[in-house]
């Protein structure tokens, strides 16, 4: 018997499980060495203590029943689970077997064999908690979660999957879910799924589901393969995301962008967007046309390449458009600036309006640019027209004043001398005096007739009624006739006229009467404005271009460069004051200029104050018919 007892003690000492003998009074009679490992208490400390004191209070009733002496001798009870107190203060989960060996004289107690299953129990608890957590997350997840077999049949799916697919909660299992797919998407899904099953690659598909009410749901299906030890695909796990709102938002954004682009592209004004550094991000067709540069050449370039002063405009307060906060702010003002065309570097005026918005911490400026060249030209034309109208009004007033003076003087002479003759105030014997008065009346009448002729000429020319009677004209003879007509005026003024004719002057085609009128006007002015005793000069020569030039030079007061346009304006003289030193209607040069231009020629004035004046008539080579 001693050998058997030693064997039992050896077994208890070497057992990996917790082995103990509980005496009939419920105390540990013997304890194996594993108690230290399982409960942290050495065997000798447990011997003689009540076994149930080590059991968790909630488990004691069951443990007492299992350890009771009522069981038949030799019968094993178990396995059963309970918790034993650990010396460190926690509880260890054990799985125990109890065998009644009270009748065995070598044991005389209940043999307890307990295995520490704490790690397994805790792992099972964690697994159950994880499963609960997974199920909770799956039920509350905003995306569908699914697991399929190799062919795509649903093994499990959360309610959200069914909701996205438009199916009842219990309907997705198996292949039935594919019936809810849009008919156009089924072949593509079948093909992609089969290919992924062969390749073992993840699945990423955009699909559509058709609900019972006809509504279409856009979804993104993402799946990862489940493989066996050999890498063969056994199934899939993945998610199904409802993309309907995203698709609708994208469609709305695309529609808004298309609408905005259509408006911007059709806009008559240039529209340019740029960042805070002045880098261009968009450049509409109107901007391309305005600046003469393709959008591709301007994108990601600086806007000051086209609008050099835009930086100053944005900073000087006139176009301060950026305010923090993310809301768009208008410029509040439209400013004018100067822009540069990209192709030729031509500068032109623009009108610029800028707004700004902050998005994502970045500033974006939108500039609306209008080419105001035409408007500026119209403004200039209006100003010029206004000034011309004012000038014409002044000219009219001056003309009336001059006309009053020019007409009254000879008319007073005519009337006065006629009254003397009519009333014979000098007596009947003063016949010679009366004849002189009659001559004065004739001269005054001729002067009045010349004034009327000049007015009729300028009126006819400006009305477009001038007609040239063209015949061959000898320049030398033309000059001689003009000199004869101004000889009397030249003699009275004491201004001799010198003649300089180039040899071999060619014959020209023109209206001899009108060309003689031009020379007479120019010679009359030369005599009128030259100082007495100083000669005037008429010169005829071949022009550098092969045409004919006739030039008249005086030694008079000259004309300042800024007054030359006045000299060419009808009814205007450089000196417009009532106390003018020189008489005249101011029509001579303007009539002469128009008559020369009617012959296709040019009338040029070279003059300076105090240095006299030279007026040159240049007839074109086309008027030359033969050399002299």
Automatic annotation (TrEMBL):
InterPro entries: HATPase_C_sf (IPR036890), HATPase_dom (IPR003594), His_kinase_dom (IPR005467), HisK_dim/P_dom (IPR003661), HisK_dim/P_sf (IPR036097), PAC (IPR001610), PAS (IPR000014), PAS-assoc_C (IPR000700). Residues 4-74, 130-201, 256-299 form the PAS domain. Keywords: Kinase, Phosphoprotein, Transferase. It holds the Pfam family HATPase_c. Residues 402-623 form the Histidine kinase domain. PROSITE patterns: HIS_KIN (PS50109), PAC (PS50113), PAS (PS50112). The keyword Kinase applies. This is histidine kinase. It comes from Azospirillum argentinense.
